[in-house]
Amino acid sequence: MLLSRAIERVILMFRRSLQARAVAGSLVLSTIALIVLGGFLSFGIGNGLYNTRVQQILTESERAVIDLQNTFSASSATNEVALQTLLNSLIPRLEIESEDQSRMVALLRTPGKTSAQVLQSPISANLDTNVITQKFKEKVRKSSSKLVYQSVELTINSITRPGLLVGAPIEIPLAGTFELYLVYDLQREQQTLDLVQNTLILGGFVLLVIIGLVSYLVTSRIVGPVRVAAKVSEQIAEGALDERLPEKGEDVLAQLARSFNAMA
Fold it and tell me: How far apart are CA 179 and CA 111, in angstroms?
């Protein structure tokens, strides 16, 4: 009941107040413009952050793949124990765990490949291998030693984070073909984007308040004399023929006052 009355009062105010309609119209148009502009800026900044980080990741991944492949190629290991020991010492070096960035590693044997040596596949403890889909694995196998990457969602401590998965084939002497997968956590970039978006939202809200105040002041300057003219017109209609409008300045409002007074 109270809500319906409040709505009726607001509607009545808009019907009777030219100033309220002008301010509301300015706020609506400004809100639409800010939403469009904010969305464009947010998309551009987010896309720029993502592309920059992807290029950095691809450079790091390419360097890691080349170093790993060269180490295996230059290795003098001739038996399974020596290869496994080398493997266990190299893979942890590729892992990165810090506040700024995180990289998890998985070295998986390519199915269907036979060799005299059977090595265990090292996988980072926090890595969920489900993010490495079968479709992505097939792309890596067909990549001809080129890097393949795609965006993924990582679940760390029950929290979903954006990530990037990079894969490349690795040839290990005496052990055959393996696939190296590097999984990067993009939570830092997401936090940066969230900060930018929150700043845009807060800035947009402050700007709307300023626009509302400016619109109110401007419309008060215009609507005020019109309101006075309406009041004086009512007084003259009731018989107060000596009532007149104040004539100040040379603008259109002053011309309206002079014309009204001449008519009166």
Answer: 10
Distance CA 221, CA 217 (A): 6
The alpha carbon of 113 is separated from its chain's Cα centroid by a whole number of angstroms, namely 43
Global confidence as pTM: 0.74
Amino acid at 44: G
Give residue-wise pLDDT tens across range 6-50. 777 767 766 767 777 778 888 889 899 999 998 999 899 989 999
CA dihedral 28→31→35→38, nearest 10 degrees, is: 160
Q: Give the closest residue to 119 by CA, choosing from 109, 110, 129.
A: 109
What is the spatial order of strands in the sheet that 148-156 belongs to? 96-97, 102-109, 176-185, 159-172, 148-156
Q: What ranges make up the beta strands (E) of the chain?
A: 96-97, 102-109, 148-156, 159-172, 176-185
- Distance CA(29)–CA(150), nearest Å, equals 39
Supply the pLDDT for residue 184: 92
How far, CA to CA in Å, does 108 sit from each of 37, 59, 69, 93?
46, 22, 14, 17
Q: For 9-32, b where at least 16 C-beta lie within 10 A, e where not — what string?
A: eeeeeeeeeebbebbeebeeebee
pLDDT tens digits, one per residue of 124-172: 888 888 898 999 999 988 887 789 999 999 887 778 889 999 999 988 8
Q: How far apart are CA 177 and CA 113, in angstroms?
A: 7
Q: Report percent pLDDT > 70 for the chain.
A: 91
pLDDT range class, residue 114, cuts 50, 70, 90: low
- Token pair listed for 157: 């401590």
